[in-house]
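Dear all,

This email documents one entry for the complex benchmark we are building for the journal club exercise. For each entry we list the sequence lines for every component of the assembly. Then comes the predicted three-dimensional structure of the complex as a C-alpha cell string, followed by one or two observations. Please use this as the template for your own entries, and keep the labels exactly as they appear.
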Amino acid sequence: MLLLTRDRRFWIRIRICFIVSLMMAGTIAVGWGAWSLGVVRQKELSDIAREQYIRRISVSARRGLITDRYGEELAVEVEVDSIYADPREVKNAGYAAKKLASVLDREQDVLQRRLSSRKHFVWLKRRVSPSESTKVKAMKLKGVHIVKESKRFYPSRELAAHVVGFAGMDSRGLEGVERLFDDQLKGNQDAASGLADAQGNIVFSKGVFGADKVVGNNIMLTIDRNLQFEVEEELKNTVRLFQAKSGQIVVMDPNSGDVLAMASYPTYNLNDITSSNPDKRRNRAVLDVYEPGSTMKVFTLAAAINSGVLRPNEKIFCEKGRMEFYDVVLHDDHRDGWLNPTQCLKRSSNICFAKIAGRMGSKRLYRYMRRFGFGEKTNVQVPYEMRGLLQHHNEWSEFLTATIAFGQGIGVTGIQMATALSTIANGGKLMKPNLIRKVTDAEGEIILENTPTVRRRVISRRTARLVTDMMTAVTEEGGTGSEAALEGYLVAGKTGTAQKSTGAHGYRDKEKFVASFFGFVPADNPRMVISVVIDEPLVSYYGGTVAAPALRRIADKALRDMGVTPNFTVRRGNPASKAEDAELSTEREQEGTVVENTAVNEQAAMITPAEIPLKKGQVRTPKLIGLPMGLVVSELAEFELRPLFFGTGVAAEQTPAPGVPIDKGEYVQVNFSPNGEYEGNQ
Amino acid sequence: MDSDFQTRDNKGRLQRRPMDKALLVSVLMLCVFGLIMVFSASAVEAGKKFDNPMLFFNKQAIFAGIGLVAMLVLARVDYAIYTKSVVVWSMLALAFFGVLACKTPLGLTLNGASRWLKAGPITIQPAEALKVCLVLWLSYSLNKKSLKIKSFSIGFLPHLIIPGMLMAACMLQPDFGTTMVMAILTFTLLFVAGAKLGYILLAAIVSTPIVYFLITGSAYRLARMMTFLDPLATRFTTGYQLSQSLFGYASGGFSGRGLGDGLQKLLYLPEAHNDFIGSIIGEELGVIGIWAVLLLYVVVATRGIVIAFRSRDTFGTYVAFGISTLFAIQALLNLAVSMGLLPTKGLNLPFVSYGGSALLITMAAAGILLSVSRGSKYEVAADVEELAESTDTDDKSGRHRKGNRRSSSAQKGK
C-alpha cells in the first residue's frame, strides 16, 4: 500500500480506520456487556441462578466419613428422599395440602401455607421414609417433587458415640468430632449445588475435578473399633453390676499418645438423638471433673523420688493406721508400722503420703502436678474439654498439700489421668493425647496427620522404672489392686476410692464414692494405659473391687488381640488366678450353650423360613446378603426394620435369615465384610 | 515513516524485516490462556464422560503445539506465494470441497449440523480454513483488479459470486455463524479496497430478504432468535444454554470466583469449553478477566492494522487487514453471543475455545499475518500506479516515475 499514490493510500487508510472504529465500537459494546452482566445485573441474574441451583440440589454437600484407626466406618452418608414443591407450579394448594397431609404426618394448614407461597422452592418434608416417598410419588401432584438428600448414618449406633458425636438435620456437626471437625467434614455447599446436572443427578464420580471440594474430608480416629466395643461392653456391665450412676474408661497407647478407646456410660444411639438427653451424651472422660483419690499417689510418689526427697528403699512410719494431723485424724485401713515406698503404694497408705507431701512442700508438689498435666487441658480433640481443678500452691494449706498428695482437694479428668500415667509407662515423657489419626480428602490425599508429640519430660527414666515396679506390686497378692492381676502379663496399677465432696467446706458424703483403677500392661513393655472410673457405685465402692476387674478383662482381651505373647514365667501364683479360672470355666459354659443354641437353630431350619406364617405387624426379613451398606439401609427402611451393623463392605451375614418373619421396627443385624464372605468373630 | 520501508541489500534486493514481536507475544498469551481455560472448563465433563479430566486439555495442547510450528513456518514463508493464482485458487477450492464433503459419508454430523470431516481419531472443521482462504482469495483478487474495483461487472460482481458460492456451501451444513463472518469479511474488504459504496449498500439491501428467509425458514433458527430476545423466559427449554451462560457472567461478578472455581462448567453449561468459554472466563475471572481478554484481542488486531499500514504492497495490506478483521469480529461475535447481545451461534473464540483444527487454522492465519509483517522479498505490485513509487523511498518527494519496473499484472494496463 505504501507503493500507492498518496491519494489512494490515503483513502484506503481512511476506510480501514472507519472499519477499525466500527470494531472499536463493537469492543466497547462487548466490554460494556460484560460489565452489565457481571455488575449491573449481577444480583438479579444470580438470584435466578441460585433458585435454579436450589431446584436441583440433590444432596447437601456430602459429609466426610469418620473411621476408626483401621478404616472401619463409624459415620457414613446414606441417601434418602426429601419432598419439596415449586408453589408456582402447584394448581390447587388446598387439595394438594390435604392429600399430602394424609401421608406426610404434617399439619395440613402448614403445608397449605407453604404451597401457596410465591416462592419457587419450599421444603415440604425432608428425609422422609421410602414408603412416604412412594406414596407422594404415586399422587403425581403437579409442582411437588422429590430429591435425594444425604443423611448421616452411624452404622455402629452407640459405638464411640461420645467421641464421634453427631451431625444435625442440616449436616452441621453438633457434638464430638463431628462438631470439632465440622469445617473439615462438611463439603462446600456452593460447589455441591453446582454439582447436580440438569436432570438432578449428582456428579460425584471419582476423579472429577472439583469433587474434592464438594465431598468433605474423611477423618480417621485413633480409636480401635474392636477395643472400643470391648471397653464399652465392660463399662456397661460394670456400671450395671455395681449399680453405679455412670462410668468412663480411657485406653491410651502411652508411647504415641493415641487414644485407643474412650467410653462413657450411660451412652446413646447416634442414629436416634431425640430419644437421648444431654446427660447421656456427656463425654465423661473429658467433661467430668472428679477427685481421683488414691490413684494420685502414683504421681506424688514419682515426684518425691524424682526430686530426691524420697529414697526408693527408705522406710516411713505408718503410725499404726492413725495419725492426728492438724485438727483432723487420718485413718488407714491397715495398722501398719514401718513401710517402704512400695508397700506404701501397695497398701495405699494416706498417712505415709501425707508425710511424703510434707517433705516435698507445696510448691514442689504443685510444680510436679502441673508438669504431669493437671490443671491444664490435654488438648485432645474433643469439644469443651475441662481443665480440672488445681489451685495455685500459694492457696494450699499444709493440710491441703497432704490431701492433694493422696488425691483429695484436686479435680482431674479421665483423660488427664490416662495421659499422666502414660508418662510413667513410657519412661517419663508427657505425650499430647491424640484422638485424630489423620484427615484425608476425598481423593485420599493427606490433609493432616498427627504424629506422636512429646510435650515435655516430667520425670527421669529411672524414676519411671522405679514407680512402675512399685505399681506392679499393687496388683500382687496383698495389694489393693490384686483383682487386676493377669495371668501371663505384668500389670502396673493403682486403685482409687474417693468419697465425693458435695459441700463447700470439705463435707464428704459418706454414701457417695468414685471408685477407680488405672494401670498399664504389660508393665515391662507397656502397650496400653487403661483408666477406669466408676461414679457412685452402690454395691461396693472400693476401686480394687469395682474397677480393677474391668481393667483386667479389657487388658486380657486387648493384649491377645494385639498379639502380645503372655509370659507365664513372670508371674508367680497369684490370687487372681482362681478367679481367672472361674471366669474361664463360665466362658466354657457359655460356649456350651452357644453350641446348643446352634443345634436348636439347625432344627428350626428344617422348615424353610417362608413356611413360617406371618403374624400381624410382621414382615419377612428381606434378603440383604451381597448388598452394599446404602442399599441395605434403604431396603430395611422399606420394610420398616431397623439396622444394626458390624464391619464394612458388602453384607455377608444377616440375622434373622431372609424370609424369617420379624416384627416391624425390630433390629436386623447385618455383618459386612469387604469381600462379602463373613468369617466369624472369634 | 522511513522505518516503515524495507531495506535493500547492496545488490538492491528487498530484505525481509524481523517479525512483529508484540503480535507474536499476544497471540502466544492468548493460546496459553486458552489452554488454561479449556482445562478449567472441560475437566469435569471430560472426567465424567471419558474418565480422564485431562482429555480435552491434552488434545488441545497437542494442536497448540502443531499450531505453533505451523505459525512459525508460515511466518518464514514469503506471503508473495499467495499472489500466485494457482496457489490461491487451489487453496480456495480445497477448502470449498472440504466444506461440501462434510455432507458426504466422509463427514460427521452432530446435533443436526454436518460441519466436520473425520480423519481417523481427529475431526476437522473445513469451514475454519475456508474463512482464511476467503481472505487470501479476496486480497489476491482485489489486488489484481486494482482500480477496476470501481466497476460493477469486473470489480464488484465476481467478489459477490465467489464468496456467495462459499457461503451457500456453508449454509448447507448449516453453519450460519461462519456464513455471517464470511459476509462481513467480503463487505469490509470490498469497502476498504474502494468498491462503490452504492453497490455495497445495494448488495446489503438485496441480501436482507435472503437472511430473513433463512432465519424464518428454519424452525431452530427462529427459535434461537426468540431465545435471544428473552433468554430467561425460555430458560428451561431453548434458552437454557444462553441463560446458563448469562448466569455464568453474573455469578462471576467483577472479580470472578477464582480460576478453577466456576460452577457453571459443572455440567450446567453445555459446551462450556467450546463456544461458551467466554461465560466460564466471566464466571471464574470476572468482568476484569473479560476485559483483559478483550485487551489482548485489541492488541492483536491493532498490530494487524499496523502491519496492514506498513505493508509495501496492497496485497499485504488486504491480507493483514483481512486476517485481523477475521480475528476481531470472530472474537467480538463469540463474546457478544455468549452475553446474549447477538443471536447467532457456532463461532468459537479464536485461540481460546476448544477445537483442534480451529486452533491450528487460526494459528496458521496468525503465521501468515506475521509473514506480512516481515515484508516480501518480491515486488507484489499489481498495477502501474503501484509501480510509480516502487523505487521511491521518500513519501514526501511526490515524484511519480512510471513504468521503470515491469510486473506481469502491469501489462494488463487500464
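Observations: Strands of chain B lie at 107-110, 113-119, 122-124. DSSP finds 14 helices and three strands in chain B.
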